[in-house]
Amino acid sequence: MEQLLNGLRACAEPTRLRILALVARGTFCVMEFTEILGQSQPRLSRHLRLLGEAGLLERTREGANVWFALPSAETATGSLARALLERLPDDDTVLAADRRQAARVLAERARIATESFQKRGAEWDEMHALDLNADDIQQALLASLPAQMGKLLDVGTGTGQMLELLAPRISVGVGLDASRAMLALARARLSRPGLTHCAVRLGDMYRLPMADASFDHVVLQMVLHYAEDPAAALAEAVRVLRPGGTLVVVDLGPHDNAACMTRLAHRWPGFSDARMSALLGDTLIDLRTAAVPGPLEVRLWSATRAPVPAPDAVAQAFALETTR
Questions:
Q1: How many domains does the chain divide into?
Q2: Which of 88, 115, 143 is the C-terminal boundary of a domain?
């Protein structure tokens, strides 16, 4: 009875329940918890200690890191933790946001762990890691964009390779990534001559730190298959796109390559044209597609944000609707 009471007391706090919900999805270290939950390390260390003392978390030390996981379901505390997690609502907005951040952290962990990243550093990109034809993909991307592009936002910029590629065509380029490690590599890349009009910043693709309709073009390359909520990421991209501006998505087509889901922590096994059209919704028009064959097919989708109707057109439409 005392063990049960200790477990209930330990998890009767919002942050600690959020931690349990996260470790039900995999193991995390303290620094990853700080990124996902947005809280300080000392505060989270205290929560982790209390959960550990109650037997609701298992600690495993590997070098400088300590990893946390749920205890075995065969133990009393492990079964208690799972029984509590079953009662958490799936549609809770806080837990949904945590899942999105956790997916990003897991993808970043997998990306940094790849051998190609270790060897190539700032020259790493996922297309090379997957042995895709990067030159053909780049040519298809360039063909989908105009020669003069104005302001560009590259969501999930990684090492800044996209900004470097499009630099001759744009007046201002901004790259956004949630990984400080990637941004450090991107800043090193963009310090080269001729790239001073390009910059990168830290940010979340679900909450872009930019004003509405502030970019002429938005690009998401090899990003959506990591996203816990692709529709939400695309909605944010459309929000910052000016009317008449172009959104370009470059991602994998549908595939059954299990290694992508494990080795690189992909959340989705590619996207079909029908799925992408549904994700983009009605805000975008003139959807165009292209495909680049390879070991895994890469698809490009480009679409235009619908122009805002003129005020007199809005009034006419309203008058027509009210007379029906």
A1: 2
A2: 88
pLDDT per position as a tens digit, 218-228: 999 999 999 98
The beta strand positions in 84-202, using DSSP E, are 150-155, 170-177, 198-202
pLDDT tens across 257-286, in order? 988 888 788 899 999 999 999 999 888 889
Place of tokens 């029906």: 324
Q: Residue 153 — φ and ψ, nearest 5°? A: -115, 125
Q: 179, 101 in Cβ contact below 8 A?
A: no
Burial class (CB in 10 A: 0-12, 13-18, 19+), 226: buried
CA distance linking residue 63 with residue 150, whole number of Å: 48
Token output for 206: 């679900």
Based on the domain organization, do 261 and 141 belong to the same domain? yes
Q: Any residues with CB less than 8 A from the CB of 100 and at least 6 apart, and which? A: 206, 227, 228, 229, 232
CATH code at position 243: 3.40.50.150
Domain that holds residue 203: 123-305
- Residue located via tokens 């270290």: 29
**Which residue type, as a one-letter code, is found at position 59?**
R
Residues 135 and 272 reside in one and the same domain: yes
Cβ contacts of 1 within 8 Å, gap of 6 or more: none
DSSP state of 167: G
